């Protein structure tokens, strides 16, 4: 039996301290569900004492019935006060969570400088706060902030803080490298000392200011820690937190620890990309394990060796983490993914079908142009059904024109003129909107609704734009992802162009087309199929 | 005296194996000059045996008279051949460099699978090739490819390879973790063993496939290696090479080794950003030491502690690596963040100033509308300077009109018409673009450049769009963030509107305004102020 490591995810709390990361309550709920399926053991959702948005999140998250322990974050009581009257600690208890992370000081310099209180009062604050939460039947994870800096400065005091937390009943004691300046050998030595002195279970929380957060986490595990605190993609303040996407596979595939099931580990790449999409943060192509280039080989000698035996230039099989090998010159990857997707849809595209090669080439060509079907299931399904010859075009575009006009002191005006053909009829309409995409959406909807009244029930629920080439940014290619809903169903479509309006138009068109085939299916009452298509209840 | 570490930069060779990295001979020369001033000891320029572009580079680089040793890369002679007749090795000698890196196999599996020769012949290939280069008076760095995988599989053979290289006269012996799958403890143990067995100077070359390249490099140094091979920003195949921008400051500031002079280290951030500009690769904001967010503080509590003593949340003084502290303004923070930002700018907005309350209310109001200044330093600075009454408007908008037109079978067309007022003159221009924002950028630039020719040097380097309310997505508010650069500086601006075009327009205008006040300051030569503003040398 391999030793189990507990995974504590703080993407939703410490992760949002990262520059440019801002998550709505909806975003947080989506990520929490994903993390839960992935198999992390604790999901730190936020600080119910600091703002109303987090209280709202905890309320809604309760109804998700997660297997993971939903965890609230807060600080020890204020100095010179009574713990029962501490508003933030009461807020944690009221939030109804079963586990709480409590942060306290363990660096004497910080007690003096930041808290401006005595070393004794700091100890009392920690003891009282943990004991209070324990009396209220919560599991308590005590985060010793700046523990390593504290230990280096005053080892007796830093250790005494941890012992006090243990006496108060803390279930886990977390050693935090808050400033991210500690080296792996220091982490190993210090955690080893703590491990000899304490009985409580130990946890590690590191930051990436020296590009060492992953190594520091591994060193702590080797020294006896049994819980890892980190975030998906390493999001977090300054240089970020320890990246769970690198730590989990290394612990499990290389060091013999057990974190999650193998099938869950095979979701790693998907989880990383999903969270980056929700957070609207560009994922570096060269990110370890999960990046698009993590198993990409540029021509020449490497490629011919890879073709003989992939172990020649790959440290693990990419499938173990749900990633794939890419040979950058002639890309053959992905075929099996797409075939299995076609099978899911009940389409007869197998590798013996001559259509298969054609649709594979088409998809490869589109991906080369910048399309990405990972976040656009509905567009992929339309492509596959089209290749299978089962899609009748319900309408075609003849032209559109979009005008945005702004004069000083007058509000901006957007209007769209759309000309489409439905059967033999040409429909020519115009509409305003409070933005160009909204104007296009309105004009297109107006044209279509006369023939397809059921479209009234659908609307766009999310709209994302990503610029794909960072250089000369406004001249680069743009990918638009649109999520649509008719309340029961959600579907995602994609458009790509050098022009954000054209890319939006493409994604809009796909969204309407998908709504029409979906509604037709529901009307025809083919439940097994629609279930598989994700057209209901998803 | 602290121990000296030799720095071997391979940005121009291994770095260009990274996906999306492609450098012209001109680019390479620019980077070589920068690296030389920065103080690296070896600059590996390419493989003269593999392509003519690299031969051309070496020819031109010779005339730069670099202090660093220009180094050529190549493989050991072909199997079953005579070394004197090896075209690639002769090419290295002919290139005129004084040092060469020679890569050879040290993993028995690779000898069999990739080379398809015998273990004895591989040894002979290594011996002959090194001896040949030594006879031609070159310094030889022997790169033992896959050394760690080789050692784990067959330690006797892997060590025998290194000994053979030593016998042949190699000046440096490099242990490569080519596949990036080795852990720091393994690196430490293996390098320690090698250090006991060999007399030659040892070098370390790691890859980042487990996000451990930096830690592995440090572990090798601790075990006795005295040279580091790596790249600027960690560019390289798959997940990249060891990142010199993280390794150098950690070795020098935290571990007591000597790599370069302190004044050179203070150029680190500039070097990192310069290379990322030349390589056309966007730099992650959270990159260790040199990222724009590496010393950025968001949380309110963190900020008030930082103002008391920056060591509370900074592991080093950012100036040591040429970076700077930034206080991010966000909903999580409060008035103290904005005041400290104003102080940084030398503005007299303190809490007793009546203007302060006014500007705070203005910022709060804008944030309520959806503006976020956390990723838009330049827009915030413009607001603060405006409130302080020190901003003269250099131009004003009268109107713009933007048209996007698309007919079936014809490419989409975008054009923008812009009317602005500069002093008393009205400037009316139009331009096309390959998207609406590009068209606006082109038209505005065309109008402004006549009066402000220095704007030629700036360009947009990143463009981000975020939809802020998920409901009714295309009618929701949109936030646009634009990053601009003029090579030395980066600045970020924000625009918000229900209309993506109007939001982009706002962010564009701020970007141009900021460029103009920045350039004016540099021209007026106010070093203390511009230094603080980060407008020069950063």
From TrEMBL, chains A, B:
| Keywords on record | Amino-acid biosynthesis, Branched-chain amino acid biosynthesis, Isoleucine biosynthesis, Transferase
Secretion signal span: none
EC number(s) given by UniProt: 2.3.3.21
One Pfam family recorded for the sequence: LeuA_dimer
Name the protein family: Belongs to the alpha-IPM synthase/homocitrate synthase family.
Pathway(s) the chain acts in? Amino-acid biosynthesis; L-isoleucine biosynthesis; 2-oxobutanoate from pyruvate: step 1/3
Classification via Gene3D superfamilies: 1.10.238.260, 3.30.160.270, Aldolase class I (3.20.20.70)
- What's the source species for this entry? Paenibacillus selenitireducens
Q: Name one GO molecular function term.
A: 2-isopropylmalate synthase activity
In terms of superkingdom, the source organism counts as Bacteria
Listed under GO biological process in this entry are: isoleucine biosynthetic process; L-leucine biosynthetic process
Q: Which reaction does it catalyse?
A: pyruvate + acetyl-CoA + H2O = (3R)-citramalate + CoA + H(+)
What CDD domains would the database entry show? DRE_TIM_LeuA3
- According to the entry, every stretch annotated as the Pyruvate carboxyltransferase domain falls at 5-266
Question: Lineage, please?
Answer: Bacteria, Bacillati, Bacillota, Bacilli, Bacillales
Extract the InterPro entries matched here. Answer: 2-isopropylmalate_synth_dimer, AIPM/Hcit_synth_CS, Aldolase_TIM, Citramal_synthase, LeuA/HCS_post-cat, LeuA_allosteric_dom_sf, PYR_CT
- What name does UniProt use for this protein? Citramalate synthase
């Amino acid at each position: 039996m391999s030793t189990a490591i507990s995974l504590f995810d703080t993407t939703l709390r410490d992760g949002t301290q990262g520059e440019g990361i801002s998550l709505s309550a909806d975003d947080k709920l989506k990520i929490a569900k994903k993390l839960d399926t992935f198999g992390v053991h604790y999901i730190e959702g936020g600080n119910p004492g600091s703002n109303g948005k987090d209280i709202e999140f905890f309320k809604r998250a309760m109804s998700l019935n997660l297997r993971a322990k939903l965890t609230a974050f807060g600080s020890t009581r204020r100095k010179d006060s009574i713990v029962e009257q501490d508003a933030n600690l009461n807020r944690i208890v009221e939030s109804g969570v079963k586990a709480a992370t409590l942060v306290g000081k363990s660096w004497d310099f910080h007690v003096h400088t930041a808290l401006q209180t005595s070393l004794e009062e700091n100890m009392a604050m920690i003891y009282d706060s943990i004991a209070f939460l324990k009396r209220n039947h919560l599991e308590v994870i005590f985060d010793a902030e700046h523990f390593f800096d504290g230990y280096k400065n005053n080892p007796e005091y830093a250790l005494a803080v941890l012992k006090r937390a243990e006496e108060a009943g803390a279930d886990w004691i977390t050693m935090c490298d808050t400033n991210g300046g500690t080296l792996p050998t220091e982490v190993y030595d210090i955690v080893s000392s703590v491990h000899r002195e304490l009985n409580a279970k130990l946890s590690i929380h590191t930051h990436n200011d020296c590009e060492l957060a992953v190594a520091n986490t591994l060193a702590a595990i080797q020294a006896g820690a049994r819980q890892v605190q980190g975030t998906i993609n390493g999001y977090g303040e300054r240089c970020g937190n320890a990246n769970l996407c690198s730590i989990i596979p290394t612990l499990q595939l290389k060091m013999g620890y057990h974190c999650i099931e193998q099938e869950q580990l095979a979701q790693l790449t998907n989880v990383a990309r999903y969270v980056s999409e929700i957070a609207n943060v560009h994922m570096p192509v060269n990110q370890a394990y999960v990046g698009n280039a993590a198993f990409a080989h540029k021509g020449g000698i490497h490629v011919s060796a890879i073709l003989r035996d992939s172990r020649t230039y790959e440290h693990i099989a990419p499938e173990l983490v749900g990633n794939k090998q890419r040979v950058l010159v002639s890309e053959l990857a992905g075929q099996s993914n797409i075939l299995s997707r076609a099978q899911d849809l009940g389409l007869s595209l197998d590798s013996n079908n001559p259509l298969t090669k054609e649709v594979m080439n088409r998809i490869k060509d589109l991906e080369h142009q910048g399309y990405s079907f990972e976040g656009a299931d509905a567009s992929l399904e339309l492509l596959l059904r089209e290749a299978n010859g089962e899609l009748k075009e319900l309408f075609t575009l003849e032209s559109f024109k979009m005008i945005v006009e702004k004069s000083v002191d007058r509000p901006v005006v957007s209007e769209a003129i759309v000309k489409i053909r439905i059967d033999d009829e040409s429909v020519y309409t115009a509409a305003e909107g409070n933005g160009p995409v909204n104007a296009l959406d309105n004009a297109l909807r107006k044209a279509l609704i006369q023939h397809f009244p059921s479209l009234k029930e659908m609307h766009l629920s999310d709209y994302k734009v990503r610029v794909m080439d960072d250089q000369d940014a406004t001249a680069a290619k743009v990918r638009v992802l649109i999520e649509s809903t008719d309340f029961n169903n959600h579907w995602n479509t994609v458009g790509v162009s050098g022009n954000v309006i054209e890319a939006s138009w493409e994604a809009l068109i796909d969204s309407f087309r998908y709504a029409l085939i979906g509604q037709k299916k529901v009307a025809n009452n083919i439940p097994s199929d629609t279930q598989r298509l994700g057209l209901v209840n998803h």
